[in-house]
Amino acid sequence: MTLTDIAAPSVFETVESEVRSYCRAWPVVFERASGSRLYDEDGRPYLDFFAGAGSLNYGHNNPVLKRALLDYLADDGITHGLDMSTTAKRAFLETFRTTVLEPRALPYKVMFPGPTGTNAVEAALKLARKVTGRQTVVSFTNAFHGMSLGSLAVTGNAAKRAGAGVPLHHAARMPFDDYLDGQVTDFLWFERLLDDAGSGLDHPAAVIVETVQGEGGINVARAEWLRALAELCRRHGMLLIVDDIQMGCGRTGDFFSFEEAGITPDIVTLSKSISGYGLPMSLCLFRPELDLWEPGEHNGTFRGNNPAFVTATAALDAYWRDGTLRERTLSRADRVERALLDLCGDDEGTGLAVRGRGLVWGLEFADGERAEAVCRRAFETGLLLETSGPRGEVVKLLPPLTATDDELDEGLGILARSVRHAAGRIAA
Questions:
Q1: If I label 210, which of 38, 75, 78, 396 is the partner at 20 to 30 A Cα–Cα?
Q2: What CATH number does domain 77-319 carry, 3.40.50.720, 3.30.870.10, 3.40.640.10, 1.10.1780.10?
Q3: Overall CATH class of domain 3-62+323-427
Q4: CA–CA dist 233, 373 (Å, integer)
Q5: Domain ranges for the chain
Q6: What keywords would UniProt list here (predicted)?
Q7: CA gap 113, 289 in Å, rounded
C-alpha cells in the first residue's frame, strides 16, 4: 500500500466541527434531491424517511413551491426584511388567516420570532412569563423543545441538557401520558402539587407539551389526556403552550396536531415545515389578549425570511385549501401501522412496540444497539431513517406527506428487511 492508496481526510473532517452528527450516520456526500429521494454525488438514490427532521413534509424541491420561489427571486423580491412590511409577508399572513386560522375558528395573532423552532419556543416562554408575572414552566418527561437555554430547561433528555454548561432553572417536570404505565390517574400528582402550599412547586406561568413526542421516542398523547391537561391549565390559571414544531403542518393528519383533541391552546409554536421548502421560518401564535409585547421587545435579524414566506404561501395554497392531504395522510397511517404490526409479529423481528399518528411512526426495540443497526442497514440499502428515544431505542419514520404509495411500500419493505438483517447480525 502506498500513501496515494490512503484516502486523504475530507474538508468535513479537517474544517468542520466535531459537533456534526447526521453525516456520521449517513457517510456520503449528497448532491441533489427531488420529491422523496436524495442523491449522492455518485448518483446513488436514497429514499428519504427522515424528511429534514420533519421540515420537508411536501418533499424535496417540491415543483409548485420551487416555481413560486424562482419567480420571486427572478423579480428581485425582497430577501431580507427584518420585520418590515413586504408583499411576501402580506400574502403569507392573508393566506394563513383564510386557509388555516379562520376555518378552524382560531383567533391567534402571528409573531415571527426568528428562523428556527427554538426561537419560537423561547418567545412562547418569554411571553407566558411576561403575561402571568410568574417564572416556572411545567414540561413533561422525554420532552424536546430546542437547544437554546430556555428551550433546554423544558427539555427532558439528560445528554442534551448537559450541553448547556450552566444550571437550567425555572422549569418543573411532570409525567407524560402513560409514563407510569397507567398506574397513576392522569395529573393526580400534578394537581396535588398545585393544591399543596408545601409542595415546593411555584405556581407555573405555563405548561408546554408536544402532542406527539418526536425526539422522545414517538410517544403519543391521547386526545382525552390533552383535553384533561387543557382543563387543568384553565382551572389553575396556567397558559397552555403546544409545541407543534415537528408535528404541525399536517404531519399527524390535521394541520395542527392538537385539532384531534378539540382544544385551543393559548400559545402554539410552529417551524420546520411551515415554510414548505426547508427554508428557515418559525411562528409563535397566541390569543390576542396575550399580545402584550412592546415594539421591539423581542426581535431578531432574521425573523423576516421573505423567500420562506413565498414558499409557505404556495404550500398553503397547494395543500390546505381542502381536506385532500389530510385524508390521504390518515389513510396512509393505517397502511404504515399494519405493516409495522406485521413486522413485529414476525418470528425474526425484534420490534417490541409500534406507535404513531398520521405519518410519524416509531418502532421500538429492546435497546439502542438494535435500533441503530436497523438504521445502518437501511442506509446501506438506500433508505434514510433516524433513531429517537432516551436510549436511541426507537426507529423513527417521517416520510414526506407527498410520498407515493409505491415509495411508501418500498420504504416499509427496506425497513422490514433491515430489521431481519440486524436481528441476525446481533444474534450471531
A1: 38
A2: 3.40.640.10
A3: alpha beta
A4: 42
A5: 3-62+323-427, 77-319
A6: Aminotransferase, Pyridoxal phosphate, Transferase
A7: 18
Helix residue ranges, H only, 364-404:
368-380
Cα dihedral across residues 401, 318, 112, 255: positive or negative:
negative
Question: Of all residues in the chain, what percent are helix, strand and coil, respectively (each to 5)?
Answer: 40, 15, 45
C-alpha 280/C-alpha 90 separation (Å) is 18
Whole-number pLDDT of residue 6? 52
Contact 129, 141 (CB under 8 A): no
**pLDDT for the residue 362:** 97
C-alpha 139/C-alpha 276 separation (Å) is 28
Q: pTM of the full predicted structure?
A: 0.95
Could you identify the residue written with the cell 441476525?
A: 424
Q: Which residues contact 228 (CB under 8 A, 6 or more apart)?
A: 186, 187
CA separation for the pair 28, 26 (Å, rounded): 6
CA dist., res. 261 & res. 267, Å (int): 16
Tens of pLDDT, residues 72-119: 999 999 999 999 999 999 999 999 999 999 999 999 999 999 999 999
CB contact at 8 A, 226 and 244: no
Contact present, 193 and 186 (Cβ < 8 Å) = no
Contact status, residue 68 vs residue 313, Cβ threshold 8 Å: yes
d(CA 317, CA 372): 38
Exposure b/e, 336-369, CB count within 10 A at least 16 = b: beebbeebbeeeebbbeebbbbbbbbbbbbeeee
325 neighbors 319 (Cβ within 8 angstroms): yes
Tell me the one-letter amino acid at 120: A
Write phi, then psi, for 84 (nearest 5 degrees). -65, 155
